[in-house]
């Protein structure tokens, strides 16, 4: 029987963050569809906006392309959604 | 991560994820502390598919749950939160210092089953072996070396944990200063990217000879213990000290890269540099009697037999014209020249390495119309330009036939001399210098 040194590094403690409260319904609400701008995928969110707008005519769907490369935050857009929106659908890569 | 930001701001979100990445979002969500993000999975791929196909995807079902995608999106925004969704606080995930006692056979199996190896045979890091390895450095075992993020979270780790990985790879204690410098660099050898990249690891200075590295014949082949093991450790520490390297969880390289076994790890042949050509680390500002490890990002090497020109510099230009423009995200070129080739270049009128780099920089131009077509340019440089970042913002305003430099600067073209003078062989790779890190402070 032998004992070995653990070769693994130490990850930080896992934090838990509460999710945002959900909407009663999307009726009468403004939902942002945010495209993260992965190359050659923009047609997906364009079609999504069309289909959702047809299916839920009482909801406003606003499509925005996030500024910068896909992993980079877009604080201006986040503030706009916070001010004018009620929810966000985010997509997508590859 | 964007959805987590918005959730924190009080905005409910529905993140869409392509089928092949179904595990990625879940893992990332756990890491950022919101494990119950409501992912909607769509078929894959999305890239370059026509609008009609997108419509089919959107009107169809989530390939994992079988539920209609549109309904899932709405439900993600409206289904009331559970008590679990509202939890705050933290969960302790501390690692124990020791594992066992157990049989050698069981421990080997544990290391394999836990993805702690590269699946080649390892040496188990017993306390005695690790203690012996620690004799290769003056640093205390419990000293924190730094942080490494190979997966989605950075781990902290100690000198002892680095030594455990060195034991596993088959290192000698005298390799420890190089291995600690690699670990302290904070540069993981493998990472989460879908792009299957590798590293090139180049050692300069006196330590090359002290630990018996090969810079001559076969330097890039598995024919020298130090070259092979140091490269292997780079991958093991990425897996174990950087919490990465698990396919479809913390590693997403579509094809992977065979170079990851030991990367392209070698010592520069400083002894056979032509007169006037400085060792690579000296070019970067180190003194000749200092040792350093330089780490490069890239994918692969190409060789001179793909070219036909008589003059070496013309062959190099031919090759340099095919590599991803360094105006794109993280790219550049490295030349790996046998000493014969280095001397040929001197005879062709290049008295220093810097002259070679300058010439290649000036002679490799490409029109903007070609530049904007590169996939990485489209994904990274184009949106940067649209945000106003230079030089891309200016390039976006210029005609398509405007010529730009393929490389951002001569410094993007690294010249390294390696080989045993048995052939006028040279290779070029898309390896771009990330940084060069001091070794001597880890002795």
Coarse structural class of chain B: alpha/beta
**Which spans of chain A of ≥5 residues are poorly predicted at pLDDT below 50?**
none
Amino- and carboxy-terminal Cα gap of chain A: 49 Å
Low-confidence stretches of chain B: none
Helix content of chain B: 25-40%
- The proportion of strand residues of chain B reads 15-25%
Work out the largest interface and the residue count of each chain.
A-B, 64 and 105 residues
Overall body shape of chain B = globular
The chain-level mean pLDDT of chain B equals: 93
Distance between the termini of chain B: 40 Å
**Arithmetic mean of pLDDT of chain A:** 92
Query: How many β-strand runs of chain A?
Result: 5
The order of strands across the largest sheet of chain A is 4-3-5
Rg over CA atoms of chain A? 19 Å
Q: Compute the gyration radius of chain B: what is it?
A: 25 Å
Dominant shape of chain A: elongated
Entry keywords:
heterodimer; A: 94 residues; alpha/beta; three-stranded parallel sheet; 26% strand; elongated; B: 443 residues; four-stranded mixed sheet; 17 helices; 34% helix
Written description of the protein model:
The complex is a heterodimer of chains A (94) and B (443). Chain A is an alpha/beta fold and 94 residues long. Helix content of chain A is 26%, strand content 26%. Chain A has 2 helices and 5 strands. In chain A, strands 4-3-5 form a 3-stranded parallel β-sheet, with helices on both faces. In chain A, strand 3, helix 1 and strand 4 form a beta-alpha-beta unit. The radius of gyration of chain A is 19 Å and the shape is elongated. With 443 residues, chain B is of the alpha/beta class. In chain B, the strands form 5 sheets. Chain B has a 4-stranded mixed β-sheet with strand order 8-7-9-16. In chain B, strand 1, helix 2 and strand 2 form a beta-alpha-beta unit. Chain B is globular, with a radius of gyration of 25 Å. The mean pLDDT of chain B is 93. At the A-B interface, strand 1, strand 2, helix 1, helix 2 and strand 5 of A face helix 1, strand 1, helix 2, helix 3 and helix 4 of B. Strand 2 of chain A pairs antiparallel with strand 3 of chain B, so a sheet runs across the interface.
């Amino acid at each position: 029987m032998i004992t070995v040194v653990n070769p693994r590094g130490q990850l930080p403690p896992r934090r838990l963050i509460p999710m945002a409260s959900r909407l009663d319904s999307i009726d009468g609400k403004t939902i942002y569809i945010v495209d993260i701008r992965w190359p050659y995928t923009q047609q997906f969110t364009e079609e999504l906006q069309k289909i959702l707008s047809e299916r839920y005519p009482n909801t406003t769907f606003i499509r925005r392309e996030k500024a910068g490369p896909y992993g980079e935050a877009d604080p201006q857009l986040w503030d706009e959604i916070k001010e004018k929106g009620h929810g966000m659908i985010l997509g997508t890569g590859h | 991560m964007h959805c987590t930001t918005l959730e924190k701001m009080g905005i409910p979100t529905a993140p869409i994820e392509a089928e092949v990445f179904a595990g990625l979002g879940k893992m990332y969500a756990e890491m950022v502390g919101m494990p119950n993000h409501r992912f909607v999975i769509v078929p894959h791929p999305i890239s370059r598919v026509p609008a009609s196909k997108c419509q089919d995807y959107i009107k169809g079902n989530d390939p994992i749950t079988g539920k209609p995608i549109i309904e899932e999106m709405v439900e993600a925004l409206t289904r009331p939160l559970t008590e679990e969704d509202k939890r705050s606080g933290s969960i302790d995930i501390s690692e124990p210092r020791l594992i066992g006692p157990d049989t050698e056979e069981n421990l080997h199996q544990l290391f394999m089953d836990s993805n702690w190896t590269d699946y080649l045979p390892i040496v188990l890091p017993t306390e005695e072996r690790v203690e012996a390895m620690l004799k290769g450095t003056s640093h205390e075992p419990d000293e924190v070396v730094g942080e490494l993020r190979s997966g989605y979270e950075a781990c902290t780790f100690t000198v002892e944990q680095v030594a455990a990985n060195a034991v596993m790879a088959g290192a000698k204690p005298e390799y420890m200063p190089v291995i600690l410098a690699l670990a302290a660099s904070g540069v993981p050898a493998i990472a989460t990217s879908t792009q299957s990249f590798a590293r090139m690891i180049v050692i300069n200075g006196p330590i090359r000879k002290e630990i018996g590295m090969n810079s001559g014949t076969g330097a890039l082949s598995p024919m020298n213990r130090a070259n092979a093991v140091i490269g292997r450790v780079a991958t093991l520490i990425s897996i174990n000290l950087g919490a990465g390297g698990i396919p479809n969880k913390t590693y997403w390289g579509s094809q992977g890269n065979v170079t990851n076994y030991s990367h392209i790890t070698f010592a520069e042949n400083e002894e056979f540099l032509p007169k006037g050509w400085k060792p690579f680390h000296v070019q970067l500002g180190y003194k000749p009697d200092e040792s350093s490890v330089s780490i490069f990002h890239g994918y692969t090497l190409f060789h001179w037999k793909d070219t036909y020109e008589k003059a070496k510099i013309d062959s190099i230009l031919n090759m340099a014209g095919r590599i991803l423009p360094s105006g794109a995200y993280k790219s550049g070129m490295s030349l790996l020249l046998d000493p014969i080739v280095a001397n040929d270049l001197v005879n062709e009128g290049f008295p220093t390495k810097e002259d070679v780099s300058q010439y290649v920089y000036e002679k490799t131009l490409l029109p903007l119309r070609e530049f904007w077509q590169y996939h990485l340019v489209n994904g990274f440089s184009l949106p940067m330009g649209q945000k106003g970042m230079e030089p891309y913002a200016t390039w976006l305003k210029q005609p398509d036939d405007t010529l730009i430099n393929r490389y951002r600067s001569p410094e993007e073209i690294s010249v390294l001399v390696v080989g045993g003078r048995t052939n006028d062989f040279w290779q070029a790779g898309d390896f771009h210098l990330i940084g060069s890190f001091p070794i001597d402070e880890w002795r």
